[in-house]
Amino acid sequence: MRALILSLTLVLILGLGTAHSAPVKTHLPGDLTLEEAQTILTAALHKAKNIGIPMNIALVDAGGNLKIFAREDGAFLGSIDIAKKKAITARFFNMPTSEFGAAAQPGKELFGIEATNDGLVIFGGGELLVRDGVIIGAIGVSGGSVMEDTAVAKAGATALQASSTSFKKSF
Amino acid sequence: MRALILSLTLVLILGLGTAHSAPVKTHLPGDLTLEEAQTILTAALHKAKNIGIPMNIALVDAGGNLKIFAREDGAFLGSIDIAKKKAITARFFNMPTSEFGAAAQPGKELFGIEATNDGLVIFGGGELLVRDGVIIGAIGVSGGSVMEDTAVAKAGATALQASSTSFKKSF
Amino acid sequence: MRALILSLTLVLILGLGTAHSAPVKTHLPGDLTLEEAQTILTAALHKAKNIGIPMNIALVDAGGNLKIFAREDGAFLGSIDIAKKKAITARFFNMPTSEFGAAAQPGKELFGIEATNDGLVIFGGGELLVRDGVIIGAIGVSGGSVMEDTAVAKAGATALQASSTSFKKSF
Amino acid sequence: MRALILSLTLVLILGLGTAHSAPVKTHLPGDLTLEEAQTILTAALHKAKNIGIPMNIALVDAGGNLKIFAREDGAFLGSIDIAKKKAITARFFNMPTSEFGAAAQPGKELFGIEATNDGLVIFGGGELLVRDGVIIGAIGVSGGSVMEDTAVAKAGATALQASSTSFKKSF
């Protein structure tokens, strides 16, 4: 009985919460969608399979928040965090992590920047996700060499542009 | 001479970075602007002065990232973090922190939720920022009683709606 | 020329790395596979769509490390972390988070335990992933009421058992 | 009725809190004021607009605690943390981050120091705030090249000295 009352109370509380937030939009129009994220992830996983090295692949949205993630069997455990941080780094500074990292080498002006933001990644494997000229997130890949990671990240990013083009054509 | 070459190299790197990101939009249209944030902060500080308790006031944008912050002279140092976490909590769950906190009391279903997300706040003082039916961020206030903090946060949130209305009228 | 030597060195280093780890198995036989994780995620997303509340869904493997993650459009940003922590909590203590949470209520012996492990979740929505009587990971779901989150998590966990049964039948 | 008693109790508790702290001063005389912080921020934002690169600007007081912060529209999300850490670094070691960073280069004696204090910044863009020969805080700026960030930080720091001089003249 008590459980029932509790449940009803919870339903009311959550109902109110939902009712309250129902009329407002909870996210900005134009942000990375899950459908797009899945398309990108599938393309990246396909590329990773071709290369033959197990990868961690992470996507963040325009706000830098995790949208989708997958770890292939046998991929480095330490690359879970690196994949996420590559995506975040690319989005946080609006450029591929390879470009960003070039300015963070010893003797270059951003040397040491990786100690900020709870850890950034200053080598390749993070690429921007751009739809119709707007940055809507980023993809980070870790598991192979930097060249391999970058190839997988670019395969993902390119899949968005292709789907974005076909999206426009359908109108 | 070496310094000159270094400078030129840096200018090139940064120039390239800028050139690369120039044609793309770096943020989603419709997000909280600095001008709006300043209007909201000014209204909140005005309310705080009327109440007479020094406050910490923080605003985050739609992605939950800090947009503006101010600490009045004499405000609790411990409230810097609370103000930020109130804004983040409100945005992360799309409701005022008072509503959110109601479901996190002992015996309620979200009891203990404040241990997630590096710390959430489960009492009042965090309010949503809504423009034309879209959540574009949140304001968090800390320094006085929960009632006082909430009053200041609401004064800020209301200032956005007022400016949003006058914005529409001017078209 | 220097760049070429550098490239060759990198290829050698990475090649050696790969060559070195080739003969050893990098993960336990029987751990949650990406294919299973995708099956579970798909079932959970299907259930979430039926319920009509956008969810965050996270799976960890037997080692408690993130295997797959997805956030539906409009799902709470704060639920990214909660979904992950629900999966981790379930796996770390080998029981659903609802059971775990029951022992963490005020007056119960694990009261306060959510402050450990960088934050645990002490309410429902985290379920174990069991294959042939072995815990191979956990699923955590966050976005709706605890009852809704739990329903989605169970839909995912059940999909593993179904696929595990059909897997055995095919032999 | 119960709610009323609860409210009264809260008023008493909070009232006592206020009454208790009323006779003691809660902050050091001479610390950075919000008014000064606003003057400095305005000058820094003005300089940033002249340069034409969106910036993150953070000020900490003598205790190294955040006093004011603003992020211009389109400024790097990753620079929120860097601006704060530049201000903190400058104040924690009582020198501009450029000077501090010079001692943290490879081969120099503070090499690696950026890994302490939850992350320090070892390049320019953090400047001290000095009033009448006393360090009262620091300003950190991030968003452009190091040269641009430094120019904006210095514009802010100079505005304090100017206002400090005119402050003295008025007596």
Structural summary, described in words:
By secondary structure, chain A is of the alpha+beta class. Chain A has one domain (28-169): Beta-Lactamase, CATH 3.30.450.150. Chain A is 49% helix and 16% strand. Chain A contains five helices and four strands, in the order H-H-E-E-H-H-E-E-H. In chain A, strands 2-1-4-3 form a four-stranded antiparallel sheet. In chain A, strand 3 and strand 4 form a beta hairpin. In chain A, helix 2 (34-51) crosses helix 5 (146-169). Chain A is globular and about 50 Å long. Chain A starts with a helix and ends with a helix. Residues 3-22 of chain A have low confidence and may be disordered. Chains in contact: A-B, A-C, A-D, B-C, B-D. The A-B interface holds A 6, 9-10, 13-14, 16-17, 20-21, 23-31, 61-65, 94-95, 99, 102-103, 107-109, 128, 130, 133-136 and B 6, 9-10, 13-14, 16-17, 20-21, 23-31, 61-65, 94-95, 99-100, 102-103, 107-109, 128, 130, 133-136. Chains A, B, C, D: Residues 1-21 form the signal peptide. Chains A, B, C, D: It holds the Pfam family HbpS-like. Chains A, B, C, D: Keywords: Signal.
